[in-house]
Specification:
Elements: H1 18-27, H2 35-43, H3 55-81, H4 88-108, E1 113-114, E2 124-125, H5 128-135, H6 141-144, H7 149-154, H8 159-162, H9 168-174, H10 183-196, H11 200-228, H12 239-247, H13 256-272, H14 284-314, H15 317-336, H16 340-352, H17 354-366, H18 371-381, H19 383-387, H20 398-407, E3 409-413, E4 424-430, E5 433-435, E6 438-440, E7 445-446, E8 464-465, E9 469-475, H21 476-485, H22 487-527, H23 532-542, H24 554-581, H25 584-592
Antiparallel strand pairs: 1-2, 3-9, 4-7, 4-9, 5-6, 5-8
Helix pairs in contact: 3-4, 3-9, 3-11, 11-13, 11-14, 13-14, 15-16, 18-20, 21-22, 22-24, 22-25
């Protein structure tokens, strides 16, 4: 299509332009691609790997991490205890690690990195040239994010070619540069945390544990190297020689693993500041190294303790706050000298309301999410099902659902309490209550008529709790606030108001007729009119002006006349209502408009 000029953005008279030819070569699907076309696509970043949602790259990162951990364990041990490289498994391990790290260097040139500029339209930089510039920049520049190529390549160089083969330990010492790659584990965790939801607290504890073990391992290898690297191991006073005298065995009878075990024992005692004295420095160099080791392990141990205490304290912040509130409540009750039974009720309420206040605490975290994610979180949490228990809040759009969920509040009632707030609607989640002789349990509602503004039309009964009752509430003001921002939802609530008001109005009118009818029957009985003819005669008399000199009581006849006119007027209105109620639902939309 580009060559034929079917797109107005690329007219046919520019078919010979270099940009059009390059675009045609890139996007053409007919015929095999040339080397130039592949190169152009590579420059555009079409072959660059995006780390996001790339499970193959995650699997490769796991392989690299395992290789790094194996390197962190084997390299210090090799430097300290192996005198030559003629160990078959050692050579095989080094070759395997070199292959993994070499492949990782090549792969890094083709992996996009996140763009740090906030106004950039791309989340990742995919241009291979810019990736190469960042990877080969000055070592550890850009806040330690760039320039890792030089450290990575230093671990792959065959130093035996550049350095005399007699300096085997120096060559192995240069392999310790690979330890810098362990920083990559921390970077990978940020990407894995989004995939698997790994806890930061657990990761921090694991990081502290790994730091302690790695420090002890490196110091043990270093301490063992000091003992076995002397020229005359049998005559030079060292900690190992003192230990051999204590064990009454030749110093050369200790294997490398035994020396490492004793060194690890000493460094662990130094780290924890225990120190039994069975292994100690035997010369000036070892005294100096022991002093440096104490400083290093002291700083490490202080960091680990501070981090662990901080993690344990803040692992569940709400539980810590709840315990503080309970301690403050106990102090308050003790200060005011409350009765033991009332103290028990207060403590019981606090423990029962634990989940309610936890939900309020979680609301602060939800505020950090976007509106769309809040709606999805509400649906997955089942809050939309709670709203469906209120008949006029069913089948809400997602934008309205987000606003309504933000207004929901968890409330708690104790036993034998009256739910007297008529400006809120409640959906019971746990516990039971009673209202008008009916038991209310889970998913039952209270106060649905809070959308009515007239106190006469709202239900006047007050539900009473039977047990501790947890409920989700929404207030009338919050509901109307959502209506102001959503016109369609406002019309739906208005229809619900009219429908509920009409129904409650009919019930109210029927109750008024029933009440006045009972008064009418009492008046008939007081007047002694038991038959129909007598009632007609009295009704006819009430239509005439009332005179004081009549035989009947004037006040009674005046009350009879008033009730008669009121009853007839109510009956007329009821008949009109009954005639119009059949077509009310169809005309409801027009009435709202």
């Amino acid at each position: 299509p580009l060559r034929e000029g079917r797109y107005s953005l690329l007219p046919t008279d520019e078919a010979a332009s270099p940009s059009l030819e390059r675009a045609s070569a890139i996007f053409s699907t007919s015929g095999p691609e040339t080397a130039e076309g592949l190169y152009e696509r590579w420059l555009l970043g079409e072959f660059t790997i995006i780390p996001e949602n790339n499970y193959w790259l995650d699997a490769w990162d796991i392989i690299v991490i395992l290789a790094l951990l194996l390197t962190a364990i084997t390299v210090p041990y090799q430097v300290a205890f192996f005198k030559d490289d003629d160990v078959p498994w050692l050579e095989s391990t080094d070759n395997a690690m070199n292959v993994v790290f070499a492949a990782d260097v090549i792969l890094t040139f083709n992996v996009a990195y996140p763009v740090s500029k906030p106004l950039s339209k791309d989340l990742y930089e995919k241009a291979p040239v810019k990736i190469m510039q960042r990877y080969m920049a000055f070592p550890l520049s850009d806040d330690g994010e760039a320039g890792w190529f030089w450290l990575d390549i230093a671990t792959l160089i065959n130093w035996t070619v550049l350095i005399s083969t007699t300096q085997v330990r120096l060559v192995r010492l240069l392999r310790l540069v690979r330890m810098f790659r362990l920083v990559r584990v921390v970077k990978l965790f940020n990407r894995w945390q989004a995939h698997f939801g790994m806890s930061y607290a657990v990761f921090s504890l694991a990081k502290c544990m790994a730091l302690v073990l790695l420090t002890l391992h490196c110091l043990a290898c270093f301490w063992g190297f000091v003992a076995i690297s002397v020229e005359s191991i049998e005559s030079t006073p060292t900690w190992l020689l003192r230990r051999s005298e204590y064990d009454e065995r030749p110093v050369r009878s200790y294997s490398d693993l035994e020396v490492y075990n004793l060194a690890l024992y000493y460094t662990t005692m130094t780290l924890t500041s225990v120190g039994f004295g069975d292994i100690r420095a035997a010369n000036d160099l070892e005294v100096l190294l022991s002093t440096l080791m104490m400083i290093c392990t002291g700083v490490t141990w202080s960091f680990v303790l501070a981090t662990t205490v901080n993690i344990v304290t803040n692992m569940d912040t709400y539980t810590s706050r709840f315990h503080d509130r309970m301690d403050e409540l106990n102090l308050l009750m003790h200060t005011r000298g409350l009765d033991p039974s009332f103290r028990w009720r207060l403590r019981k309420y606090m423990h029962e309301s634990f989940n309610v206040h936890r939900q309020k605490h979680h609301q602060e975290t939800i505020e950090w999410l976007s509106e769309g994610l809040r709606g999805e979180l509400a649906v997955h949490s089942g809050l939309d099902k709670i709203l469906k228990q209120i008949w006029y809040l069913q089948d809400m759009p997602e934008d309205v659902l987000v606003d309504l969920v933000a207004q929901l509040k968890a409330v708690m009632f104790g036993p034998n309490e009256f739910v007297s707030d008529r400006t809120k609607a409640f959906v019971i989640r746990k516990g039971s209550a009673i209202s008008k002789g009916r038991f209310l349990m889970r998913d039952d509602t209270m106060g649905e008529d809070m959308i009515l503004l007239s106190d006469i039309l709202r239900d006047s009964t007050t539900p009473k709790t039977l047990t501790f009752l947890e409920a989700i509430s929404i207030s009338r003001d919050d509901l109307f606030r959502v209506c102001h921002g959503n016109p369609s939802f406002s019309r739906k609530i208005r229809r619900a108001q009219i429908k509920l008001a009409m129904w409650r109005g009919v019930i109210y009118a029927a109750k008024q007729i029933q009440i006045k009818g009972s008064k009418w029957d009492l008046l008939w009985r007081d007047l002694g009119a038991t038959g129909t003819d007598e009632r007609k005669k009295i009704r006819a008399n009430t239509m005439q002006p009332v005179a004081v000199e009549d035989n009947c009581n004037a006040d009674v006849l005046r009350e009879v006349r008033y009730l008669t006119s009121l009853a007839e007027e109510s009956l007329q209105r009821m008949s009109l209502l009954e005639a119009r109620m059949d077509g009310f639902e169809d005309r409801l939309g027009g009435l709202v408009t």
